[in-house]
Amino acid sequence: MISQVVLCLFVAATAGQVGVTAQRICNNSPNLCNRTYDSITYLGAHDSPFVRDVSTGYSSFGDQFFNTSTQLDAGVRMLTAQVHAVTTAQGAQEWHLCHTLCNLFDVGKLSDWLWEVRTWLDRNPTDVVTIILVNSDNAKAADLMPEFSAADIAHYAYVPPFQKPPPVPADGASAWPALNEMIDQGKRLVSFVASIDPASNTAAPYLLNEFDFVWETAYDVSNASGFKCTPDRPPSLDASMAAAKAAGMLFMMNHFLYWDQAFGIQVPDIRNVQNTNAWDGEGSLGQTLLDCSGQYQRQPTFVLVDFFNVGPAIDSVDIFNGVKDAVGRTLVTAEVVGGGAGIMEEERSITTTKTLKPCKVWL
Predict the structure, then answer these.
(1) Whole-angstrom distance, CA of residue 179 vs CA of residue 26
(2) 316: helix, strand or coil
(3) Measured distance CA(152)–CA(114) in Å, rounded
(4) DSSP designation for 51
């Protein structure tokens, strides 16, 4: 492998791109419209609906400072959430979004959150969003399908023409469509569910078994030196990048720290988030992006962070995508939020000047 110092955006701008569509803005950039779904890096909000703000009393379980709609407005394009079964006082079962345990932090019904995402998709007709649901109580497709129906979001869902990604051919051609194609077809939501049985969801084929399509780095990291680039899930890959690449799987880079509390409870490590989401330094987002992309010889598909707005997390992903002049984003503070601080300024067209240093990339 030969490496030299060049701007990361040079590689990203040429990877998987077959042209530029100036007439349309896709995921905040015309440069992404003709890129295939799997050749783009998406900024992900870890535990998107679990918000640390005045509405939750600034709960220590909150992973984000802003709600899902604001996350999407600001440029996030991948959302994760934890789904749990809850028995109501009347004995009915509901599917709620809870952080670890529902008696610790329950933010309500899955269908209500999906409605929020659906409403955002209605307002933004040229954007593609991905959801990954952590299936904490082993929900079946029959359990989750009514939640998607109640939110009237299933009509946006993309169903790939394969049950598992096919091996990448020698010419590197992608089996995934370009964003343009997904937008034209009105199929702008990709929905993965962890450990759902694909054989049981013939009525809802849009509920994709995450670990048939996606591999992840370790998610339970509690110190800056703990970020590694090898597969942690699914275990069938046996920590082999080669096996993941041969299978054509999408790469999710988990990049957030937990703060271990008493009784085995973990909360997001807000103490170190400025360093975790930084471009340089041990355990920084930028350095881990470079390390993992170099080892895997391809940029991550998803980069999952806590407190997405803090530091240059958005800028770092833009660099990997070759996006220099993002359009149509809401500008939020890049600082740790507390005491009611919020959106600094709302802009529908924002030009950001990248000041991050050049970096070593793979050629």
Answers:
(1) 7
(2) helix
(3) 8
(4) B
Q: In terms of pTM, does the model score above 0.85? A: yes
Residue 10 lies in domain = 3-362
- Each of the 363 residues of the chain gets a pLDDT tens digit; together they read 323 323 343 344 444 444 444 479 999 999 999 999 999 999 999 999 999 999 999 999 999 999 999 999 999 999 999 999 999 889 989 999 999 899 989 999 999 999 999 999 999 999 999 999 999 999 999 999 999 999 999 999 999 999 888 877 777 789 999 999 999 999 999 999 998 987 777 789 999 999 999 999 999 999 999 999 999 999 999 999 999 988 899 999 999 999 988 877 889 999 999 999 999 999 999 999 999 999 999 999 999 999 999 999 999 999 999 999 899 999 999 999 875 444 443 333 333 334 444 344 332
Separation of alpha carbons 180 and 190, rounded Å? 14
Task: Assign residue 223 the CATH number of its domain.
Answer: 3.20.20.190
Nearest to 224 by CA among 199, 256, 196, 246: 256
Exposure b/e, 259-290, CB count within 10 A at least 16 = b: eeeeeeeebbbbeebbbbbbbeeebbbbbbbb
Cis-peptide, bond into residue 234, ω within 30° of zero = yes
Element holding 84 (H helix, E strand):
strand 78-87
Number of domains comprising the chain: 1
Helix (H, G, I), strand (E, B) or coil at 167: coil
Number of C-beta neighbours around residue 189 at 10 A: 23
